[in-house]
Amino acid sequence: MTDARSTNITWHSGSVSRADREKLLGQRGVTLWLTGLSASGKSTIACIVEKMLLDRKKHAYRLDGDNVRHGLNKNLGFSAEERAENIRRIGEVAKLFTDAAVIVIASFISPYRKDRDAVRANLGAGDFVEVYVKVSVEAAERRDPKGLYKKARAGEIKGFTGIDDPYEAPERPEIVIDTENTDPENAARRVLEYLDAHGYLQS
Amino acid sequence: MTDARSTNITWHSGSVSRADREKLLGQRGVTLWLTGLSASGKSTIACIVEKMLLDRKKHAYRLDGDNVRHGLNKNLGFSAEERAENIRRIGEVAKLFTDAAVIVIASFISPYRKDRDAVRANLGAGDFVEVYVKVSVEAAERRDPKGLYKKARAGEIKGFTGIDDPYEAPERPEIVIDTENTDPENAARRVLEYLDAHGYLQS
User: Fold this and answer.
1) Closest chain A residue to B24, measured at CA
2) Using one digit for the tens of pLDDT, what is the confidence trace for A169-202?
3) Does chain A have fewer CB atoms within 10 Å around its N or its C terminus?
């Protein structure tokens, strides 16, 4: 530990900028927003993208129901208004991480177009990349790894997206992944290729 | 761009962990929580700490009123309940950034001990470092760079911390900085020395 007084550096050049952080990390901050039905494969793809980015020495962070619904948004229920607030807060957190130069991988059903578009509008141009993880309700229901569609059909879960609540598909997503015809590894590679091609993986 | 199908890597080893991110960045995630009166010097110190960390090639991010009150918490007012929710949400965001292996520099008056202690309890042991930026009300009032104390004395601002709302000093902060006897550069160096001494600047 050097004596704090032994140097005469003056710190007056203002705050560290986003560009400074991007240069440090060798990447550009961005929010990858994965939207799609329950059982579409969002989480699986998100995890693989995260791993592939780490292998490229890139700093990524996943936001999903696990780390948001039990923390930041634990005081929100599932009314339309609360779902909107849920997505709004997640969008604001994603914006902070993006400003921090992190590659955010947000994975939420986020069924309403209006809520997703509000997040897009709140982030800067190029900072929001919508990834539509596409699957038919029929195929998702056949997968049903958590038995949620079964419960929804039985009326044990109300307002379940795709059953008794609508899923509004993105109109102009940056990336569409048809998970009935692509495996998760290839889906993740497509996301990486998009990031590469658009310069996000360099500063 | 290589053909996505040309490699046969299988991705089944689970998610990227916090330890993986810390190794990538060569640092440990932590939340530095700067608390103190308005005009205590929190923001100045926060900016210098951020700059010093960047010079050490460390990835830090500041959370403060500027990027939180106008975004994530723009739907909160200043009642006791809303102030508590303000700090709760900031604490949850700091927790996410800490899990992302970032060094968070949170700078908020955060006058109530209960709210700060809830943030501490919510973060893991060693993940929360409370920095008490100490100044007397008299000295802060003499500085008054934004004229806020003057307005509070004139009754134009109600519930102003230190004037007609209490500031509850931390009882066991990790770092105390007496800004009446230390300049901001030395204060920031003390914070860096703490991080160094406690192993946060290596993974």
Assistant:
1) A57
2) 999 999 999 999 999 999 999 999 999 999 999 9
3) N
Answer yes or no: is B52 within a domain.
Answer: yes
Length of chain B: 203
Query: Domain tally for chain B?
Result: 1
Residue B184 belongs to domain with CATH number: 3.40.50.300
Q: Is A126 left (phi over 0), alpha (psi -120 to 50) or beta?
A: left
pLDDT 10s digits, B105-152: 999 999 999 999 999 999 989 999 999 999 999 999 999 999 999 999
Q: Is residue B159 part of a domain?
A: yes
Residue A7 resides in a domain? no
ipTM for the complex shown = 0.92
Task: Verify whether the Cβ–Cβ distance B54 to A97 is below 8 Å.
Answer: no
pTM reported for the whole predicted model: 0.93
Domain that holds residue B166: 17-197
Between A15, A67, A193, which is nearest B50 by CB? A15
Cβ-defined contact of A11 to B97 (cutoff 8 Å): no
Residue A6 placed within a domain: no
